Amino acid sequence: MEKVKCLIVGGGPAGYTAAIYAARAAISPVLYEGLEPGGQLTTTTVVENFPGFPNGVDANALMTDIRSQAVRLGADIRRGSVSAADLSSRPFKITIDGQTELEAETLIIATGATAKYLGLPSEQKFRGLGVSACATCDGFFYRRKDVAVVGGGDTACEEATYLAGLCNKVYMIVRRDVLRASAAMQERVANTPNIEILWNCNTREVLGDSSGVTGARLERKDGEVFDIKIDGFFLAIGHHPQSDLFARWIKTDEAGYIITDGRSSATNVEGVFAAGDVQDPHYRQAITAAASGCRAALDAEKFLKR
Fold first, then answer.
1. pLDDT tens-place string over residues 196-236
2. Residue 138 catalytic?
3. Which of 224, 218, 227, 158 is nearest to 188 (CA)?
4. Is 134 in the active site?
5. 137 belongs to the catalytic site
6. What pLDDT shows up at residue 187?
7. pTM of the entire predicted model
8. Same domain, 65 and 109
9. Is omega for the bond preceding 91 within 30 degrees of 0, making it cis?
């Protein structure tokens, strides 16, 4: 059985950054990238808000560069996903793809959180071409254009009001006749003149062509079907943190986000740390994920020295 000082699970900004810092700390990190090397960031096109790129940067190129930096510094990055874990005692026992078994002195969980989608084929067809699950990431590309936000909770209201500051018109597609959001968020939406709420509506299809999204086909509860013209279609119906494999041992909140100890990345299990969107229900940005990956590697280094 292979023995590893520092095992990192997840190949997004948090995992790759943790690998960079762990490699420089000489704790021989081994990283398994999971099913989506590069993480959720690779589902977008150009990243405008990552520091150091005044003209923006291609998302896939950014993640490739961060990965290459980790490899150059000595990180062992591998393809594969965790299929089983036993965190009942150290060293932790981890199984990769149902075959490879490892023993890890420390574990950094950076498995991320996946956005919830409606499950429409057309929605998947236009991912990265007008369909997005992050207004903060992609809203800039829709300045002075018309967009739609799906959802009726606090996140949807927050995304809609953010986009309203950039876009000409923001439709909120709400499947009920009320918003689930807090009173404060509802008031903010009501006081934003370029937000229009489409009540009792479900999305039947995202419309588009070779250039991207051009509209959405909606259906009201009474059966009426109609189209709206939009350039961007934003999902705000929640995220699912990829913590299920570890939930038997690691404390999570009600939504499944891993709970860390105050300002550190430490979990309730000694030697296990969490970084990135799997422990962050609030910010969900590449730069904050990268920063938490740095913290997790530094915490793991200190733990091993102690």
1. 999 999 999 999 999 999 999 999 999 999 999 999 999 99
2. yes
3. 158
4. yes
5. yes
6. 94
7. 0.79
8. yes
9. yes
